[in-house]
Amino acid sequence: MMRDGYIARYLGREYEASPDGDTVRLYRPEPxxxxxxxxxxxxxxxVAAAEIDDLAYVRSTCTWRGQPFIVLAEHDAWLRxxxxxxxxxxAAELGLEEFDYGVYQGWAxxxxxxxxxxxxx
Length: 121
Description:
Layout: E1 4-10, E2 13-20, E3 23-28, E4 36-39, E5 42-48, E6 54-64, E7 67-75, E8 78-83, H1 88-93, E9 97-100, E10 103-109, E11 113-120
Antiparallel strand pairs: 1-2, 1-6, 2-3, 3-5, 4-5, 6-7, 6-11, 7-8, 8-10, 9-10
């Protein structure tokens, strides 16, 4: 599973999370006690930040065609990647789309990606 966002450990379990001042929103894909459905397949629980055992930002990174990337998403055998090398000519050579000024993204075949790893920031 590719992750890029906050995670929190609460009562011995890890959740996708969104810190907001003195509270943290915890997310899960199925119902559970204390969680409210906000849309189909998405349940949230708001807890005090002081109750959280651990809060961290995790990011998946990889190398594709010899260049560094952040992994934003995964779909079937493809990874949505964002180039972090900072060189527009290289991004163009790789056939990446300019998502925003200086931000280049594209889809990479998962089998062509190396050094896939998750880092806690």
